[in-house]
Amino acid sequence: MPWPPPLYASNGIPGWLFGTAYIYVATVFIQSIAGALGLYLWLVGRVASQGMGSTINMLVMRVLQVLLIIVMRNVYALAISVLLGSLAQLLYYVGIVKGLVNPLLGIGVIRRGARGFLEFGFQSWILGYMGTLSFNLIVYLVYIYLGPRFTGIYGLAAAIANAVTALGPAVSTVMNSRLSQGLGAGIDVGRAFREYAIPSFIAASLLAQLIVLALPALPMIGIISGEYVRSIPYASVLLGYTPLAVIAGIYTSYYWVIGRGWYALLANVVGLGLGLLAYVILHFIGIYMAIASNYLIYVLTLVAFWFSERWNAKSINVLVIGLSLILTIISSCAVPIPDPPITWPLAQLVSISTLIIVLYLVKPLPKALIDQVPGFARPLITPFTKTER
What we know:
16 helices; 0% strand
């Protein structure tokens, strides 16, 4: 194989960077074993140990990331820190499980129950993988069409948006456990799902608006500087789609738990495929078309879920969700309109205040939510929960 590989050479990526690919391959291998051990801990009820492994991974990665960046001053610092964080997680799991996963036993399980593997293991993996595809493919297309300069700007904007979209997997992890137990206990899993989905969408909307409110202040306090200041208007507009991504991810997890994972996969494939196709066709519009494709991906995904769910547009919950989404988009898109942003922070403060007032009047949050938040946060959400009749 020629060096560097043709894909790298044809896209102008320097050969010295290709070593990071090998590091990430090793990371994926380590994470696959750690993931299996983590799943075992979850299945046997040792959720705290599973969470501790993830915490160790994150702490080791972040600390080494800073240290290695100072010493190495290149992207290998990022790749190596991710590898070592995953290795620390694996070693922790091996220490408490007292053993490794036997691949031969796994192959035997697949042979004896191929259908069960597709329904549980493979289906879960590919649904999780779909969540990473949209980000990676859009970044790659931005690089192809707009070059490395805009790739860095878009990458920072996407990283800021990911602070909100990360809420989806976090909620899904807890929700999946409760719904799985509920299926065996005979509870109304649809109602339990809504107790997670509605607050999550509202929380994502408020969080996105708060981040938009803070964005223009970041250069003033030195958090964002230089060429990356140009990412602020793009990050602002990109934050508008984040509640859609959160609810689409939670719906995907819910469908997997209730045994309709293949439909969830179809919904995600439709959204991702058509959203990327739209960007490929209209890429000449520029970076805002890359941002628009994110909106399109998750709108189409939710439309596919609508064909199954048929949400009632007159439902008070649907109306509140719609209003919170509209206010989030207005708040996000108001920042890049003028230069300097004379609408900031008035537009953002008005949108946040309006949403809080509506939430106080309608009280869409379920009473059960109070028991799922830390004690210090309970007085903050109580005014927005439904009163007992």
